[in-house]
Design goal:
By secondary structure, this protein is of the alpha+beta class. The protein has 13 helices and 8 strands. Strands 4-3-2-1-8 form a 5-stranded antiparallel beta sheet, with helices on one face. A 3-stranded antiparallel beta sheet has the order 5-7-6, with helices on one face. Helix 2 packs across helix 3 and helix 9 crosses helix 11.
Protein backbone atom coordinates (compact mmCIF):
# COMPACT_ATOMS: atom_id res chain seq x y z
CA UNK A 1 0.00 0.00 0.00
CA UNK A 2 1.11 3.58 -0.64
CA UNK A 3 1.82 6.21 2.00
CA UNK A 4 -1.49 7.89 1.11
CA UNK A 5 -3.43 4.64 1.51
CA UNK A 6 -1.75 3.86 4.83
CA UNK A 7 -2.59 7.28 6.28
CA UNK A 8 -6.23 6.92 5.30
CA UNK A 9 -6.49 3.34 6.56
CA UNK A 10 -4.99 4.24 9.95
CA UNK A 11 -7.17 7.34 10.29
CA UNK A 12 -10.38 5.49 9.45
CA UNK A 13 -9.38 2.66 11.77
CA UNK A 14 -9.21 5.12 14.66
CA UNK A 15 -12.55 6.68 13.72
CA UNK A 16 -11.00 10.11 13.08
CA UNK A 17 -12.16 12.67 10.55
CA UNK A 18 -9.57 14.43 8.42
CA UNK A 19 -10.15 17.58 10.46
CA UNK A 20 -9.67 15.73 13.75
CA UNK A 21 -6.39 14.21 12.57
CA UNK A 22 -5.23 17.60 11.35
CA UNK A 23 -5.96 19.16 14.75
CA UNK A 24 -3.80 16.52 16.45
CA UNK A 25 -0.73 17.49 14.44
CA UNK A 26 -1.41 21.18 13.75
CA UNK A 27 -2.48 21.16 10.11
CA UNK A 28 -5.77 21.63 8.30
CA UNK A 29 -8.17 18.88 7.31
CA UNK A 30 -7.61 19.97 3.71
CA UNK A 31 -3.91 19.15 4.07
CA UNK A 32 -4.74 15.69 5.34
CA UNK A 33 -7.14 15.21 2.42
CA UNK A 34 -4.33 16.01 -0.04
CA UNK A 35 -2.01 13.51 1.65
CA UNK A 36 -4.64 10.79 1.33
CA UNK A 37 -5.04 11.27 -2.42
CA UNK A 38 -1.29 11.74 -2.97
CA UNK A 39 -1.68 15.35 -4.12
CA UNK A 40 0.94 16.42 -1.61
CA UNK A 41 3.25 15.02 1.07
CA UNK A 42 3.64 16.16 4.68
CA UNK A 43 6.74 18.01 5.80
CA UNK A 44 9.21 15.36 7.03
CA UNK A 45 9.31 17.05 10.44
CA UNK A 46 5.63 16.15 10.86
CA UNK A 47 6.12 12.41 10.36
CA UNK A 48 6.82 11.51 14.03
CA UNK A 49 3.72 13.45 15.17
CA UNK A 50 1.64 11.95 12.36
CA UNK A 51 2.71 8.41 13.28
CA UNK A 52 1.91 9.06 16.96
CA UNK A 53 -1.48 10.53 16.10
CA UNK A 54 -2.32 7.48 13.96
CA UNK A 55 -0.86 5.09 16.60
CA UNK A 56 1.46 3.42 14.09
CA UNK A 57 5.19 3.52 13.40
CA UNK A 58 6.80 5.59 10.65
CA UNK A 59 7.89 2.30 9.04
CA UNK A 60 4.23 1.24 8.87
CA UNK A 61 3.28 4.50 7.14
CA UNK A 62 5.80 3.68 4.44
CA UNK A 63 4.95 -0.04 4.30
CA UNK A 64 8.32 -1.06 5.73
CA UNK A 65 7.00 -3.44 8.39
CA UNK A 66 8.93 -6.40 6.99
CA UNK A 67 12.28 -4.62 7.30
CA UNK A 68 11.34 -3.47 10.77
CA UNK A 69 10.43 -7.01 11.81
CA UNK A 70 13.74 -8.35 10.50
CA UNK A 71 15.71 -5.78 12.51
CA UNK A 72 13.61 -6.49 15.60
CA UNK A 73 14.14 -10.24 15.18
CA UNK A 74 17.92 -9.79 14.98
CA UNK A 75 17.95 -7.58 18.08
CA UNK A 76 15.77 -10.06 19.98
CA UNK A 77 18.01 -12.94 18.99
CA UNK A 78 21.06 -11.01 20.23
CA UNK A 79 19.41 -10.30 23.59
CA UNK A 80 18.44 -13.95 24.03
CA UNK A 81 21.92 -15.14 23.06
CA UNK A 82 23.45 -12.84 25.67
CA UNK A 83 21.28 -14.28 28.46
CA UNK A 84 23.38 -16.54 30.68
CA UNK A 85 20.69 -18.73 32.24
CA UNK A 86 17.32 -20.23 31.38
CA UNK A 87 15.72 -17.90 33.93
CA UNK A 88 17.26 -14.84 32.30
CA UNK A 89 16.22 -16.06 28.83
CA UNK A 90 12.65 -16.48 30.09
CA UNK A 91 12.66 -12.98 31.54
CA UNK A 92 14.07 -11.44 28.33
CA UNK A 93 11.57 -13.34 26.17
CA UNK A 94 8.62 -12.23 28.31
CA UNK A 95 9.73 -8.60 28.34
CA UNK A 96 10.22 -8.61 24.56
CA UNK A 97 6.69 -9.99 24.11
CA UNK A 98 5.30 -7.51 26.63
CA UNK A 99 6.95 -4.54 24.89
CA UNK A 100 5.70 -5.70 21.50
CA UNK A 101 2.19 -6.26 22.83
CA UNK A 102 2.04 -2.88 24.58
CA UNK A 103 3.38 -1.04 21.50
CA UNK A 104 0.43 -2.30 19.45
CA UNK A 105 -2.21 -1.11 21.90
CA UNK A 106 -3.02 2.51 22.66
CA UNK A 107 -2.86 3.38 26.35
CA UNK A 108 -6.38 4.73 26.10
CA UNK A 109 -7.47 1.10 25.66
CA UNK A 110 -5.59 -0.08 28.75
CA UNK A 111 -6.47 -0.26 32.43
CA UNK A 112 -3.35 -0.69 34.53
CA UNK A 113 -2.89 -2.18 37.95
CA UNK A 114 0.05 -2.70 40.27
CA UNK A 115 -0.05 -5.28 43.04
CA UNK A 116 3.05 -4.09 44.86
CA UNK A 117 2.81 -0.38 44.20
CA UNK A 118 6.03 -0.38 42.15
CA UNK A 119 6.61 0.91 38.64
CA UNK A 120 6.11 -2.42 36.88
CA UNK A 121 2.56 -2.70 35.68
CA UNK A 122 0.14 -5.20 34.27
CA UNK A 123 -2.72 -4.22 32.01
CA UNK A 124 -6.26 -5.13 31.16
CA UNK A 125 -6.81 -4.53 27.44
CA UNK A 126 -10.10 -3.35 25.92
CA UNK A 127 -10.22 -3.03 22.13
CA UNK A 128 -13.11 -2.67 19.71
CA UNK A 129 -13.20 -6.38 18.90
CA UNK A 130 -11.08 -8.01 21.60
CA UNK A 131 -10.15 -8.06 25.26
CA UNK A 132 -7.08 -9.32 26.98
CA UNK A 133 -4.54 -9.10 29.77
CA UNK A 134 -0.82 -8.53 30.10
CA UNK A 135 0.20 -9.87 33.52
CA UNK A 136 3.69 -8.94 34.65
CA UNK A 137 3.51 -9.46 38.41
CA UNK A 138 3.24 -12.28 40.90
CA UNK A 139 4.21 -15.89 40.09
CA UNK A 140 2.73 -15.80 36.58
CA UNK A 141 3.84 -14.01 33.41
CA UNK A 142 1.48 -14.24 30.48
CA UNK A 143 -0.08 -12.41 27.57
CA UNK A 144 -3.57 -13.16 26.36
CA UNK A 145 -5.84 -11.52 23.81
CA UNK A 146 -9.24 -12.96 22.89
CA UNK A 147 -11.60 -11.90 20.13
CA UNK A 148 -14.88 -10.71 21.61
CA UNK A 149 -17.79 -12.96 20.52
CA UNK A 150 -20.57 -11.19 18.63
CA UNK A 151 -23.17 -12.51 21.11
CA UNK A 152 -21.10 -11.66 24.20
CA UNK A 153 -18.86 -13.78 26.39
CA UNK A 154 -21.77 -15.68 27.87
CA UNK A 155 -22.40 -17.22 24.45
CA UNK A 156 -19.25 -19.36 24.69
CA UNK A 157 -20.76 -21.16 27.68
CA UNK A 158 -24.02 -22.10 26.01
CA UNK A 159 -22.77 -25.52 24.89
CA UNK A 160 -22.79 -26.57 28.54
CA UNK A 161 -19.18 -27.77 28.61
CA UNK A 162 -17.73 -24.56 30.00
CA UNK A 163 -20.37 -24.29 32.71
CA UNK A 164 -19.91 -27.95 33.60
CA UNK A 165 -16.16 -27.44 33.87
CA UNK A 166 -16.45 -24.35 36.09
CA UNK A 167 -19.00 -26.07 38.30
CA UNK A 168 -16.69 -29.07 38.72
CA UNK A 169 -13.51 -27.11 39.41
CA UNK A 170 -15.42 -24.94 41.90
CA UNK A 171 -16.34 -27.95 44.05
CA UNK A 172 -14.22 -27.71 47.27
CA UNK A 173 -13.74 -31.48 47.42
CA UNK A 174 -12.62 -31.55 43.79
CA UNK A 175 -10.14 -28.76 44.47
CA UNK A 176 -8.71 -30.71 47.42
CA UNK A 177 -8.15 -33.67 45.12
CA UNK A 178 -6.64 -31.51 42.35
CA UNK A 179 -4.14 -29.93 44.76
CA UNK A 180 -3.29 -33.35 46.19
CA UNK A 181 -2.73 -34.76 42.70
CA UNK A 182 -0.54 -31.79 41.77
CA UNK A 183 1.81 -32.73 44.62
CA UNK A 184 2.04 -36.33 43.45
CA UNK A 185 4.16 -37.65 40.56
CA UNK A 186 2.43 -38.70 37.38
CA UNK A 187 1.33 -42.32 37.56
CA UNK A 188 -1.55 -44.67 38.25
CA UNK A 189 -3.66 -44.92 41.39
CA UNK A 190 -6.91 -46.57 42.43
CA UNK A 191 -9.50 -43.91 41.63
CA UNK A 192 -11.52 -44.55 44.79
CA UNK A 193 -8.47 -43.79 46.94
CA UNK A 194 -8.01 -40.23 45.68
CA UNK A 195 -10.76 -38.52 47.77
CA UNK A 196 -9.64 -40.38 50.89
CA UNK A 197 -5.96 -39.50 50.46
CA UNK A 198 -6.85 -35.87 49.67
CA UNK A 199 -9.05 -35.46 52.73
CA UNK A 200 -12.24 -35.02 50.71
CA UNK A 201 -15.71 -36.35 51.51
CA UNK A 202 -15.42 -40.09 50.78
CA UNK A 203 -19.21 -40.47 50.67
CA UNK A 204 -19.03 -38.52 47.36
CA UNK A 205 -16.23 -40.63 45.85
CA UNK A 206 -18.01 -41.56 42.60
CA UNK A 207 -19.15 -37.97 42.00
CA UNK A 208 -15.70 -36.53 42.78
CA UNK A 209 -13.93 -39.00 40.47
CA UNK A 210 -16.32 -38.09 37.65
CA UNK A 211 -15.67 -34.38 38.19
CA UNK A 212 -11.91 -34.96 38.26
CA UNK A 213 -12.29 -36.50 34.82
CA UNK A 214 -14.35 -33.49 33.71
CA UNK A 215 -11.60 -31.05 34.68
CA UNK A 216 -8.88 -33.19 33.08
CA UNK A 217 -7.01 -34.04 36.27
CA UNK A 218 -7.28 -37.81 35.76
CA UNK A 219 -8.10 -40.37 33.11
CA UNK A 220 -9.93 -43.46 34.38
CA UNK A 221 -9.95 -46.99 32.96
CA UNK A 222 -12.06 -49.84 34.29
CA UNK A 223 -10.63 -53.35 34.68
CA UNK A 224 -12.05 -56.64 35.94
CA UNK A 225 -9.66 -58.45 38.29
CA UNK A 226 -10.83 -61.82 39.61
CA UNK A 227 -14.37 -60.80 38.83
CA UNK A 228 -14.01 -57.54 40.75
CA UNK A 229 -14.31 -54.25 38.89
CA UNK A 230 -11.47 -51.83 39.57
CA UNK A 231 -11.17 -48.26 38.35
CA UNK A 232 -7.57 -47.12 37.83
CA UNK A 233 -6.79 -43.45 37.37
CA UNK A 234 -3.84 -41.92 35.53
CA UNK A 235 -2.71 -38.79 37.37
CA UNK A 236 -2.58 -36.17 34.62
CA UNK A 237 -2.46 -33.12 36.91
CA UNK A 238 1.33 -32.59 37.12
CA UNK A 239 1.64 -32.58 33.33
CA UNK A 240 -1.68 -31.11 32.17
CA UNK A 241 -2.11 -28.50 34.90
CA UNK A 242 1.47 -27.27 35.17
CA UNK A 243 2.57 -27.58 31.54
CA UNK A 244 -0.63 -27.36 29.54
CA UNK A 245 -3.90 -25.43 29.16
CA UNK A 246 -4.84 -25.73 32.83
CA UNK A 247 -1.91 -23.44 33.69
CA UNK A 248 -4.02 -20.66 32.16
CA UNK A 249 -6.82 -21.45 34.61
CA UNK A 250 -4.47 -21.43 37.58
CA UNK A 251 -2.95 -18.11 36.49
CA UNK A 252 -6.40 -16.62 35.88
CA UNK A 253 -7.59 -17.77 39.29
CA UNK A 254 -4.53 -16.22 40.92
CA UNK A 255 -5.10 -12.95 39.06
CA UNK A 256 -8.78 -12.79 40.01
CA UNK A 257 -7.94 -13.52 43.66
CA UNK A 258 -5.16 -10.95 43.92
CA UNK A 259 -6.22 -8.11 41.64
CA UNK A 260 -9.01 -5.86 42.83
CA UNK A 261 -10.86 -3.21 40.84
CA UNK A 262 -9.98 -0.65 43.51
CA UNK A 263 -6.30 -1.07 42.58
CA UNK A 264 -6.85 -0.30 38.90
CA UNK A 265 -6.26 3.09 37.36
CA UNK A 266 -6.80 4.40 33.88
CA UNK A 267 -3.88 5.48 31.76
CA UNK A 268 -3.77 7.91 28.90
CA UNK A 269 -1.48 7.74 25.88
CA UNK A 270 -0.21 11.29 26.41
CA UNK A 271 -0.15 11.47 30.20
CA UNK A 272 2.24 9.68 32.58
CA UNK A 273 0.73 6.78 34.58
CA UNK A 274 -1.11 7.78 37.73
CA UNK A 275 -0.48 5.96 40.99
CA UNK A 276 -3.09 3.43 41.96
CA UNK A 277 -5.30 4.47 44.82
CA UNK A 278 -5.13 2.43 47.97
CA UNK A 279 -7.80 -0.26 48.33
Amino acid sequence: MSFADNVKKARVGLGLTQEALGQRIGVSGQAVSKWEVADSFPDPSLLPALADALEVSIDELFDRETAGRERAAKNAAALLSAARSHEEKDRVLFELCADAFESRVSRKNMTGFSLGGDDRLSYMIDLNDAEGVLLAEGPFRFLSLAERPEDGWESVCRDGKTGEFLSAIGDPDVLKCVFWLLCRPSGRIEASLIPKRAGADVSRTSEIVQKLETVGAISVETFAVNGVERRIADNLAPEFYCKGPMLLLLSAAWTCANVRASRWYHTNRCDPPMKAENA
